[in-house]
Design goal:
- The chain is of the alpha/beta class and 191 residues long.
- The chain has one domain: 3-Layer(aba) Sandwich (Rossmann fold), CATH 3.40.50.
- The protein is built from six helices and seven strands, in the order ααβαβαββαβαββ.
- It has a seven-stranded mixed beta sheet, sandwiched between helices.
- The longest helix has 14 residues.
- The radius of gyration is 15 Å and the shape is globular.
- The termini are far apart.
- The protein binds S-adenosylmethionine.
Length: 191
């Protein structure tokens, strides 16, 4: 069963499909982040683990918190982690606007295609800020805001200018935008 307005877990295979792996080069994505192999990083709205698995492999001395509000997604990501024998991931059910993490618990946070589904993107970003340490980083991946054959309804999308303004308003610094492909962007900022 899916929660209204959230990605339907029955369709989760789309999120780990070969087409998606072609559209987003996860290796290049990670090496473009200010990430260290010792970091503690949250994958917020992790889904079935498209980025959780590469993160867990990358964080050879660190840890990943895989968080989602849908248990079916967490069950899938745990199965994939177990299948690879990756033990540096904590898979935890999250809440809409409250992360199950202590203040300043994180070095980094990744939010891939989750803010467009969030009931209150600013509240969720504020939570991320609470959980990041003073030298932390945030990476947001989102769809460009225009009509396309694929992806979420255009009304839900957040364009890069609005995303940058949200991050700056919340006190994040030096947001930098990169194009992931023709349809999707990445924005990275510091605490
Ligand atoms: C489009 S999927 C993307 C999944 C994954 N990040 C990826 O790129 O493959 C969005 C995910 O965010 C989750 N989600 C939506 N709102 C959330 C929230 N407020 N907190 C945590 N997870 C949320 C959904 O359950 C869904 O698994």
């Amino acid at each position: 069963m899916s929660i209204q307005g959230k990605f339907n877990p029955n369709d989760m295979q789309v999120l780990v499909s070969p087409e998606r792996r072609q559209a987003i080069d996860t290796g290049a994505l990670l090496t473009g982040l200010p990430i260290s192999t010792r970091d503690v990083v949250a994958d917020i709205g992790c889904g079935p683990g498209f980025l959780t698995l590469p993160l867990a492999r990358y964080l050879t001395e660190g840890r990943v918190h895989a968080l989602d509000i849908q248990q079916e997604m967490l069950d899938a990501v745990q199965r994939s982690l177990d299948a690879e024998g990756l033990t540096n991931a904590a898979v935890t059910l999250s809440n809409e606007n409250r992360l199950p993490l202590d203040d300043k618990a994180l070095d980094g946070a990744l939010l891939a295609f989750v803010l467009q589904e969030a009931h209150d993107p600013d509240a969720l970003l504020g939570e991320v800020q609470r959980c990041l340490n003073d030298n932390g980083w945030i990476a947001v991946l989102e769809w460009h805001k225009r009509d396309m054959d694929c992806g979420p309804p255009v009304t839900r999308r957040i364009n890069p200018e609005t995303m940058e303004a949200k991050l700056l308003n919340l006190g994040f610094q030096i947001p930098k935008r990169h194009e992931l492909n023709a349809d999707q962007y990445l924005m990275v900022a510091r605490t």
